[in-house]
Every structure is written in C-alpha cells, then in structure tokens.
Amino acid sequence: MKENILTVDNLHVSFKTQTGKVTAVRGVNFELKKGETLAIVGESGSGKSVTAKSIMRLLPKHNTEISKGDILYGEKSLLSLSAKEITDIRGSEISMVFQDPMTSLNPTMKVGKQIMEGLQRHQNMTKAQARDRALEMLKLVGIPKAEQRLDNYPHQFSGGMRQRVVIALALACNPKVLIADEPTTALDVTIQAQILDLMKDLQQKTDTAIILITHDLGVVANMADRVAVMYGGKIVEQGTLDQIFYNPQHPYTLGLLKSMPKLNEDKGQPLLPIAGSPPTLATLGEGCAFAARCPHTMKVCHSYTPQDTEVEQGHTAACWLQDVRTPKASPGEVLGVN
Amino acid sequence: MKRYLIQRIGYMIITLFIIVTATFFLMQLLPGTPFTNPEKLTAGQMAVLNAKYGLDQPVGIQYLRYIGNLVQGDLGYSFQHEGRTVESMISSRIGPSAFIGLQALIIGAIVGMVLGIISALKHNSLFDYGSVALAVLGMSIPSFVFAALLQYYVGVKLGWLPVALWEGYSSTLLPSIALSVTVTATVARFIRSEMLEVIGQDYVITARAKGMTEKQVVVKHVIRNALIPVVTMLGPLAVSIMTGTLVIEKIFSVPGLGEQFTLSILVLDYSVIMGITIFYSALFIFVVFVVDIIYGFLDPRINFRGESA
Ligand SMILES: Nc1ncnc2c1ncn2[C@@H]1O[C@H](COP(=O)(O)OP(=O)(O)OP(=O)(O)O)[C@@H](O)[C@H]1O
Ligand code: SF4
Ligand SMILES: [Mg+2]
C-alpha cells in the first residue's frame, strides 16, 4: 500500500457574494496516493475547481471562507500554513495546470523566463542553471527547436504547444502532486490525446501523483486509477476506475455513464443525458442534492443527507439506496446493475 | 517594418494637410482684419496693406500660395510684428512651454502611477475610494481653477513660490503643478483600471501557482502588464497639456507658446495662428506616432506588419 501524499478531509468552502453566502464545497473527502491519478468528474459548477484551488490556497482571500475541514500534504496541514510557507509549496511540491493555455501564460514574458522564474524561486539556481533546466523541460514536453523557443513569447505558440509549455512550467521543480484542471478542454481532439499521452508519460518518469479534473469520461477511462464523482459540492461516489465504470452505485454516476457515447454504442442504446439542471448551491439545504433529478428518489432523500457508505473495499457512495437503514431498497435491483 | 513606417508617415502628412486646410478656411470666417485700428485707415491705406500681405487675392489663391510656402518650410511673416517670421516667433516661445509641459507630464505620470497602483492593490479600501473621488475631481475641474487656488494659497498666503512671471526655476513650479492635476487624475484612473483587469487574469494565477511571492507577482506580472498600455495615454495627455498651457501661461504670465497663441487670436494675426496650429498638430501627430512605435516594442504581441503571429 502506497502512502497518502494528499488528504482532503471534510472540506467545506464558501464564498461571500452580493446575494449572500454560497457554499460551493460541502464536505469533500479524498486521498491521493503517491504516483496515482485521481480523476474528479462532475457537471459544471459542482465544485471541482474550487476544491483544486483550495488545495493550492489560490482562492481569493477577500471572499472565501474555508469553514470546516482540512487538507494535509503528507502530515502537514496546508490550511494552517503562513502565506510565505504556502508559496514555498506551490510550484515546488504541488503544481497546477489550468484549463486555457491561451490565457494562462504571461503574454509579455518570454516562455523560457516564465519557466525559469519558478526554478529560481524554489531551487536556488543561478540564471544559467535555470535556463538549462528550462530547456531540458521544453525538450521533455516535446517542443521542437526548444533552444530557440525559450526566447519566444506565448503568442508565438499554438494552443497545444502552449499547454506543453504550461506543463513544462508545472513540472520543472519535480512536484509530488500535479493538479490539472481540465487541461485539454480548450484544445482540439487530436491535440487533447497528445497532451494526455504526454502527461501519462511524464508521470511514469517522475512518479508524480495527478489530480485530473475533467468532464470527459473518455479521458477518465484513459488516465485514471481512481475516480471521484462530484455533485453539488460533494463527492457522491468514489472508487477505482473499474469499480466506478463497471459497478456504479450512485444514480448520478450511472446517469453520467449512460450519457457517455461509447458505452451506449456498444449496447446499441440511445444517448441519455441526465434530465434537469444542476442544483442552485445557494439554496441547497438538508437532503440529497440530486433528489430533484434522481429517478429513484425516496421520501428520506428530501429530508436527510445521505452519508458515505462503503459498498466494497475502497468504493464509497453517498446515496440512501446504499444505506443499511433503508433495508428495503436494494440498489442493484433498482439501478439495474450488480 | 520599413513599409509600415513609410505608410505611417504618408498618413501623417495627409492628416496634417487636412488640418492645415480646415484651419485655413475656418480662419476666413473670423470677422475683422489683422491690422491695428482698421477704422483709422483710409480705403487707400487698407488696399495697400491688403496687397502687401496678399489679402486682396481670391481665397483660393491665398490658400495655394500658403501651401506652396509651407511645403518649403516657410510659415510666413507676422501681421502684427513688422518683419518677424512666424518661425522665429514660435521658436523664441517654445522653451518655457516645453519646460512646464514636460515637467507637468513627469509629475503627473509619477504621482498618477503611484496613486493608481496603490488604489488597485488596496481595491475597495478607503484609500481606493478617496483616490477615485480625487481623480474624478481632478479630471472634471479645469486646470485654471487649480491655478488660481495655487496662486492664492501657495503664492500669496504662504509665499512659498512666485505667484507669476518667469524668473528662474521656482516660477516653473506652480504652472507645472496646475497643469499636472489633470494628468495625475487621468493616469491614476487609467492605471487603476488596467491593474484591476490584469489582477484578474489567468496568468497572474499561474504566477501565484508557481510559488511567486505576492510582491513578485505584483511587480513582475501585474504592474508590468498594466503599465504597458499607459503609453497610449501619452497622445491624449499631450493634447490636454497643450490646451492647458493656453490658459495657464496666461494666468502665470509665462512667456510661452500658449500665451503667444491667445495673444495672436485676440489680434487676428492670421499667419501666427496658422503657424502655431500647424505646430501643435504636427507635434500631436508625432507623439501618437512615437507612442505606437514604443508600444510595439513594449508589447511583443504587436508586430508592425499588422499580422498576429
Ligand atoms: N471566487 C468565487 N466567488 C464566488 N463564487 C465562486 C467563486 N469561485 C467559484 N464560485 C462558485 O462555486 C461554484 C463551483 O465552482 P467551480 O468552479 O468549482 O465549478 P467546477 O466544478 O469547476 O465547474 P466547471 O466544470 O464549469 O469548471 C460555482 O457555482 C461558482 O459560481
Ligand atoms: S439519495 Fe435518494 S435522491 Fe439521492 S441519489 Fe440516492 S436515491 Fe437518488
Ligand atoms: Mg472548473
């Protein structure tokens, strides 16, 4: 059993907005092991990015409140670090790649310098050493003519090449954890595959653990060791890739899988998007957040929040169907899986 | 780059030509004559004078003659001051104007930047609200009001600086400060909004995610990117200073170009009015040109062939 490198424990994050307090993350738990890839999937607004940014402490200070829970890097609580201590961890121990490579690089700074900055900040390198390392990284992520490219500006690269630069930047200091927030959403399909291959390849070389945030279950199937499904600010189901894909236990996960083209083609079934729209976070109270859209809603779902239930080793789901206290509900039968 | 320059210079000449033409014909509409006490002149004397200055010719001919001379760099003679060329009248006046103008620009740019940057970094604080309010005041109150206030309080009451006239460096300060208020306010507002925009950009989050300290993020990524567009403000600021000097030089009795300009308008000294207008226009067109070139060097995304790579 590998050791946990990152532990997110009962994380609650809310924002003060003009219209009142919005709780975007409402009790997220997961563990990330050394070198593994955890995919976080879920609809827009389910709190994936907020969770990721909480780990890096990148949420705006003035209106964010982490009201409950903790985030541990190894044994260290990231939430209780000073501003200076967290900057020491950012980019060197934990790195992040963002969605849009067109906007995530500084347009007026040469890409080489943007990579070197982090190296000089964390690794006490001289300029020349940092430059060598930046060059090495550009080569590693497959940028042709890397030597000349060091002195180019971001606008001189295509989208895919820019995302390679961003990955080079993120991995330059050999972080233990890489958080990639929809790293390929903004790219063409063929380029997407290349970038994902690159990430997989680099992960094998460096043994970095990856948190991969995505909407795309195809990407999950290719990349993930474990999968966490988020809905309404919570992880409603998590388990290994096989557990989630072949033995889903939460109606929302099942809905997601049914809306995925490939699986349906095999069975010759029509595509079934989940009816209804995501919940309004501001008005979410007690009860299951999915109740309004769930085809199996029971009375209890509206008034009490379902708790995480272990369905098998390393596989949990938060749904009343799984709860021992609702013995009459037999999840396999209801959901049509076993 | 070369092609771009040639094209730009071509446009600049055309622009200037249009301005000259428009000013020339607009001036024909002004009532009165450029001669002192015309009512005391006999019809014969008038005719002699008109003939001497070519005013007896049809307007079209006068215009062509003026353009012809202008192309050869000849701005003609003053109607008011026997034998003085317009050129010499401009060049003898330019020093004081340039000095108080540039000084105002420097003061305004520095103070404005500092205010704007602090305002944005302390967004929604008391300091921010205060400086926004001051900027609005500074932009909406005309500079001669500040001039009068400065003269009264700093000049008369405190007696720290000369109230008017042109006697050494200390006399340049009050006119420059009065002129710089608008510049300060404009720059402060502009930088503040640029900073706020840049602070929200993804690449600033990337810089934080790299582990840059807050100070490094602000200095290397935010301020740098927010300052680049400020260069584009130079054109409008130059205009605001030029028009400001017209009144300010009068109030402080600065022997500059602005004062000469107002004087010439009062006495309808056609050739001097034309000359100074052309000079101001050319200066403005030149500033805008230089700004575009500088901007191209500061912002790597711009290249002079007008393609985006
Ligand atoms: N700084 C903020 N201030 C206020 N609300 C915020 C802020 N950041 C995020 N939110 C809110 O938190 C909720 C969750 O947002 P989040 O970005 O985590 O969603 P997501 O799951 O990443 O969605 P997507 O797939 O669209 O990226 C959203 O309703 C969003 O409006
Ligand atoms: S708890 Fe109830 S409403 Fe929520 S997913 Fe399970 S069955 Fe559906
Ligand atoms: Mg997101």
From TrEMBL, chain A:
Q: Which molecular function terms from Gene Ontology are attached?
A: ATP binding; ATP hydrolysis activity
Q: Name one GO cellular component term.
A: plasma membrane
Supply the PANTHER family for this chain.
DIPEPTIDE TRANSPORT ATP-BINDING PROTEIN DPPD (PTHR43297:SF2), OLIGOPEPTIDE TRANSPORT ATP-BINDING PROTEIN APPD (PTHR43297)
Its family remark reads: Belongs to the ABC transporter superfamily.
Protein location: Cell membrane
Q: Which GO terms describe its biological process?
A: peptide transport
Q: List, alphabetically, the Pfam families matched.
A: ABC_tran (PF00005), oligo_HPY (PF08352)
Record-annotated membrane-spanning stretches: none
Record-linked SMART domains: AAA (SM00382)
Lineage of the source organism?
A: Bacteria, Bacillati, Bacillota, Bacilli, Bacillales
Q: Which SUPFAM superfamilies match?
A: P-loop containing nucleoside triphosphate hydrolases
Keyword list (alphabetical) reads: ATP-binding, Cell membrane, Membrane, Nucleotide-binding, Transport
Which named protein is this?
Oligopeptide/dipeptide ABC transporter ATP-binding protein
**Domain of life the protein comes from:** Bacteria
Q: ABC transporter domain: from which residue to which, for each copy?
A: 6-257
- How the protein sits in the membrane? Peripheral membrane protein
TrEMBL record, chain B:
Which residue windows are transmembrane per the record? 9-30, 98-120, 132-153, 173-191, 226-252, 272-298
In this chain the ABC transmembrane type-1 domain maps to 94-295
Keywords of this protein's UniProt record, alphabetized? Cell membrane, Membrane, Transmembrane, Transmembrane helix, Transport
For the keyword Metal-binding, the answer is no
Where does the UniProt entry say this protein principally localizes?
membrane
Q: In which domain of life is the source organism classified? A: Bacteria
What cellular-component terms does GO give this entry? plasma membrane
- Indicate the segments annotated as coiled coil, or none if absent: none
Q: Does the keyword Membrane apply?
A: yes
Q: Which GO terms describe its biological process?
A: transmembrane transport
The subcellular location is: Cell membrane
Q: Could you tell me the membrane topology recorded for this protein?
A: Multi-pass membrane protein
Which family is annotated? Belongs to the binding-protein-dependent transport system permease family.
Under what name is this protein listed?
A: Oligopeptide transport system permease protein
Write down the species: Planococcus koreensis
